[in-house]
Inverse folding.
């Protein structure tokens, strides 16, 4: 297991165990990874040829274009887009499309639609970090205790984590791992369910004088739990 991932993974689990409102530790890492990638491409490494070759080929998804726009590095963006457009131009030719050539040209455009330099890099690193967390549960007793204090895992990251564990974890550790993470999820969904129910009750005039307890942001928290929290505003 690559050492470079153990530090950020430990930091994310430290953060959410101290501040449960930060939520899923893999969402914390997901956000950090994409911020780092955006810093790199719009910062000093913008003109690095090996990065530029990839950004020219892959382009970006709308979410990441919008995140780049917010950084207001307009010349940097102009330069990145200038050379990306050259790549897109190649995919637009030839002028007349017939038979197999047309299928290939449509395929090339579809590929472009689906590809994003930031998404690709982020997802690759996040997968390695999920693998690292599963490995650390087995190898590091301190991390195991830390993981037990996780407030919850969002469902997509929970699914990715147990999928990896089921495939790669030694069979003697897997039951303990699974019962630990399952317990975290069960506890959270129980309180979340209660909070959402109370939230709905509060719209009934008979509950006007009752306090909100922990229910005011329960709809937002439920969405975070179900879908993850892809940017810092979530
Ligand atoms: Zn998550
Ligand atoms: Zn993207």
């Amino acid at each position: 297991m690559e050492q470079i991932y153990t530090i950020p993974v430990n930091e994310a689990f430290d953060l959410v165990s101290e501040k449960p409102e930060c939520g899923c530790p893999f969402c914390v890492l997901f956000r950090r990874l994409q911020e780092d990638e955006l810093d790199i491409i719009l910062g000093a490494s913008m003109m690095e040829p090996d990065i530029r070759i990839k950004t020219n080929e892959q382009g970006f998804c709308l979410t990441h274009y919008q995140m780049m726009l917010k950084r207001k590095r307009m010349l940097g963006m102009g330069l990145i887009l200038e050379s990306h457009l050259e790549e897109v131009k190649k995919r637009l030719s030839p002028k007349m499309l017939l038979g197999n050539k047309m299928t290939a040209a449509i395929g090339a455009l579809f590929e472009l639609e689906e590809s994003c330099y930031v998404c690709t890099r982020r997802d690759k690193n996040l997968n390695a970090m999920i693998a690292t967390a599963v490995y650390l549960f087995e190898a590091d007793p301190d991390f195991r205790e830390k993981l037990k204090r996780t407030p919850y895992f969002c469902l997509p990251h929970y699914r990715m984590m147990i999928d990896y564990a089921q495939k790669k974890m030694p069979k003697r550790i897997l039951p303990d791992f699974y019962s630990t993470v399952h317990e975290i999820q069960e506890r959270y969904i129980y309180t979340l369910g209660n909070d959402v129910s109370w939230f709905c009750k509060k719209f009934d005039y008979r509950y006007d004088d009752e306090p909100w307890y922990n229910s005011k942001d329960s709809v937002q928290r439920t969405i975070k739990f179900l879908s993850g929290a892809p940017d810092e505003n979530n």
About this structure: The first helix runs from residue 6 to 18. Residues 60-61, 63-64, 116, 118-119 surround zinc ion (ligand 2) (CB under 6 Å). The mean pLDDT is 92. The CA atoms of residues 198 and 215 lie 6 Å apart.
